[in-house]
Amino acid sequence: MPSRRAALAAFFAFGFMWGSWAAIVPAVQHATGAAKGELGLALLCVGLGSLPAMLVVGPRLDRVPVLLPASLAVLAAAAVLPAFAGSVAVLAATLLVWGAVSGVVDVGINAEVAAIESATGDRSMQLAHALFSSGLLAGALLAGAARQAGAGRLPILAVAALALAAAAVANRRPVPRAPARDEGPTNVLGLHRAAVGVAAICTFAFVVEGALENWSALFLTRDLDAGPGVSALGPASYAVAMAGGRFSAQWLTRRFSDRMLLTAGGICAAVGTVTAAAAPAIPVALVGFFLGGAGVSVAAPIAFGAAGRIGGARGISTVTTVGYLGFLAGPPIVGATGQAFGLRISFVLLAGLAATIAVAAGRIRLE
Q1: Interval 35-45 mean pLDDT
Q2: What CATH number is attached to the domain comprising 283?
């Protein structure tokens, strides 16, 4: 019977890296001299690197499972690169590398959990994504405390690199892959057609997730005059809600349908992002980030679980690839809107996407 501990550890380490990154975004902006719009374009490079990597590697992961530990090791080595960025151009180049390698890791860890679910018959996807959110929280809080104490970018990212390296060692023997039960029809890009609908939901969710993760600290800093330690509470409050929502979903899915959870989650996320947009003070903004995180938390695990049931590993690859269009489009949309109208208006746009999730939940295939 395969153990899920190594795969779950990889989810935590992956989240820890992104949480650390979210907390140091204001420091990175200062070091590179990037305007909001320029920072948004630099963040766009994460998606530009991820999408081609997932398209090429995703469908092949079942045949070459060693790509999971290898990609974790490479990401550990690349994790410190943004610490050396002194310009927007260099930052963009490092985030392009981050995106490419993290795209392979993201598909790999989800495929690993899917393989474990297939081998054991037990659901673990919600727990895995909850641990990602827990890692995000831990990374954001520790990085924020380190920044408050005067630590620079390099030591903060070095800790994240060590966590990824440990996960690479733990996953050195991935679970053997069983043939997919239903490969189903694909398009010219190798995407599973029946999983595209649920992948679109994941896209909207990832736009909201990425915006709250990457822009909440900057919003608190620029719009509400928060210090480094307090600004880190933005991604931290969002991550607490994400983790709590996903841990709860492990229980809630036994009592409520995926459609009901998606609908309720979309409504909650819309209320939260509107609250953040209108926040007159830091505590209100934190409540908004919490509600936004709690609402959107259920969407991605439901999407990955549904994709696995619809089309096996190729379905998961489809959701990851199409879903990451959210990370591709989100940063420049939020950055450009924030540059032109302010981040408050950007958060109103996020509320519209969250509401779209709630409406679409009753119209897509989930089995």
Answers
A1: 81
A2: 1.20.1250.20
